[in-house]
Amino acid sequence: MDSSADKGQELPVKKPHNYRGTTTRNLRAREVGRFNDLDPDQPMTVWSVDSGDDIPISCRIPLLEVPAQLPLSLTISLDDLSDPWATIPTVDRILRWAEAVSYDMSGVDLVMGRSLMKKLCQTPYNRKDPWKAKIYRYRNTICMESDDERFNDDNSSFANWGKVFEDVMKTGGRRTPGYRCEDVDVRMPRLVSLGPLKILTNSRISCQLSENRVDKPESYVELKTVGVITTEKNEMSFKRYKCRNIWAHCALLGIETVYIGYRTRDGELQKIQRFSMEDLEREGEQWWSTEVMLSFLKNLLTWVKSETVEGVTYSLTYDGQSYFSPVCLFPEEHDDLARIVKSSFPDED
To answer: What local confidence, expressed as pLDDT, does residue 75 receive?
Structure first.
């Protein structure tokens, strides 16, 4: 292979104002099923929207119950927060479900996790924040998995406090140190339409609004924690960075409501506030635009689709070394990803 082939392809990252044309009107997301698989070594409980069956009990989403009294402590023993899925790649989770329900993949352009989508779409604003992903194309479907160890690290105190916040919001705060909710780990595969692109992704829905007990998209709720706002600098950071990050986490999958818990440096929950996606946009309108993020994501994924071929694994990288760093795509061996995809969709004779 010559040097130009080794280098691969490059996509320039332009200034944010150059990304236009794709708005929330071009974004749609719908639920296509659920699974609950607390033990990855055992058969998962699955459900498909197309099955016509009732949603299994273990795939029901808990109801939201906001605590009436604050403050509350979010500290807990780390041993109580083990995640059996921590070492399982996101693409593997999605494809396990798709294989179990015989989901038709012929119309799916990409398979990727929501966290990677969130990371990629914010690139025009996070010019110094590097990322990398690995890609394998099976027939017309591109499977994309994060390949950034820092990005996959979910063991910080902030992440653990977020998990406890979920417990708090499902029980009205009725918990003591060491308490855990009844094991509920509902994952919801969703088909996201971004313009002409169809993306099969996976979300973990925390709970649903108690005033609407029927499982409907508008009732699903995300839960997030942020530091308490005590200064003008804190407020600016919340609007410029936190609101953008939370919007990208929720809106890409059609989640309309998020409850944000404000916590101290010691993990004490002091305040809870409800936001719609429109609320978050208004908070950050001075610093960021949803059109920029959606347009960049569509351009990037369309480019990846045009530059990849079946049966080849690639690396997709953004090094963030300078403001002018491009996104790079080049062939590279990723046997683990190829093996995952082939095991779920073996070639038919």
So the answer is: 83
Per-residue pLDDT reduced to its tens digit, 2-42: 334 456 899 999 999 999 999 999 999 999 999 987 666 67
Instruction: Report the SS3 class of residue 246.
Output: helix
> Which residue carries 């993306």 as its tokens?
199
Distances (CA, A) of 303 to 12, 113, 228, 290, 331: 11, 19, 40, 20, 15
Tokens of 51: 């099955």
Least Cα distance to 161 among 262, 240, 274 occurs for 262
- Judged by DSSP in three states, 335 sits in helix
Residue 289: what pLDDT? 98
The full DSSP string for 34-73 is: EEE-S-TTSPPEEEEGGG-PPPPGGGPPPBP---SS--EE
End-to-end CA distance of the chain: 32
Q: Which residues pair with 227 in a beta bridge?
A: 263
Confidence at residue 186, expressed as pLDDT on a 0 to 100 scale:
83
CB atoms within 10 A of CB 48: 18
Decide: 329 and 131 in contact? Cβ < 8 Å. no
- Find where tokens 């929720």 sit: 250
What is the C-alpha to C-alpha distance for residues 64 and 211, in angstroms, rounded to an integer? 9
pLDDT of 153 higher than 50: no
Per-residue tokens: 349 = 């004779």
Cβ(127)–Cβ(325) below 8 Å: yes
Region 220-233: what's the mean pLDDT? 95
Rounded to two decimals, what is the model's pTM?
Answer: 0.91
In DSSP notation, 215-241 reads --GGGEEEEEEEE---SHHHHHHIIII
Torsion of CA 180, 90, 218, 162, to 10 degrees: 40
CA atoms of 333 and 314, how far apart (whole Å): 7
The Cα 8–Cα 233 span in angstroms is 42
**Sequence letter at residue 143:** C
